[in-house]
Amino acid sequence: MRAQHSLLSAIERDLRSAHQPPLGWYDVLWELDRAPDGRLRPYEIEERTLLAQYNLSRLIDRLEKEGLVMRESFDQDGRGRWVVITEKGRAARAGMWEVYAKSIQAHIGAKLDDAEAATLAELLSRLA
Amino acid sequence: MRAQHSLLSAIERDLRSAHQPPLGWYDVLWELDRAPDGRLRPYEIEERTLLAQYNLSRLIDRLEKEGLVMRESFDQDGRGRWVVITEKGRAARAGMWEVYAKSIQAHIGAKLDDAEAATLAELLSRLA
DNA sequence: CGGATTTATATGCATATGCATCTATTAACC
DNA sequence: GGTTAATAGATGCATATGCATATAAATCCG
């Protein structure tokens, strides 16, 4: 808990001081950016990111308001929606990555070697 | 991030379904419970728990409202305060621990052996 | 078929968080 | 000794979160 708290604060601080949006935005944009046609259903994003349904719904509101994604209707199922990343959204993700990658390196990469990172990832994956 | 997110949700869920307060309360009550005379200055709690100053201030409000802690003045420095745990607070902490301990065992203890847990703790401590 | 259930997403309301700033007090400096 | 800076803690305001529930469409089942 402490490690993630201090890592997350450090990374959020780095993003903020580079005038980038919060980290949660990255996860959604990243999933969309690498999805076929840059589009996913909300429930697919939910599965991939672990965001709670009601939080994701409102995060999509914010992304949409900034023009980073668009909602489109999903014809095969009237309940469903598409969330589609825009060009502006792809650019925003790339801009965030510039900062995020350096932040990961500074706060994690510099403190663990590859073998240690692999061990850590394996142990954590058993808890997730 | 994912491991802590899913652990924290699971533990919060366990606490809630046992009608216990959120986990954040535990950390503060625990620090107070084991401090000499059951009292600490807010900034000391802050250092020990990693809570942000403004969040701690309001968490203390909530604990005080429930009668689990009391604020007292600190004579050596007019800016300072004592936060003192009450008997009700000690009992509340003990009650939370009943649930929390089982939850830790179920979600972590059951998935890692002692050596793995020690490795994990060591690696995480390097990131905190 | 038609009512009951389930699934996908959104939202109202209460609470928690973050940021910036405020007040009060003490320490630092020249 | 008086101004300036630093420290301890609290708070107003905007935003985010959690919970419960709403809405709407699809599926199930007798």
UniProtKB/TrEMBL annotation, chains A, B:
PROSITE patterns: HTH_MARR_1, HTH_MARR_2. PANTHER family: TRANSCRIPTIONAL REGULATOR, MARR FAMILY, TRANSCRIPTIONAL REGULATORY PROTEIN. The keyword Transcription applies. GO terms for molecular function: DNA binding; DNA-binding transcription factor activity. One of its GO terms (biological process) is response to stress. SMART domains: HTH_MARR. It comes from Mycoplana dimorpha. This is DNA-binding MarR family transcriptional regulator. Residues 1-128 form the HTH marR-type domain. Keywords: DNA-binding, Transcription, Transcription regulation. It holds the Pfam family MarR_2.
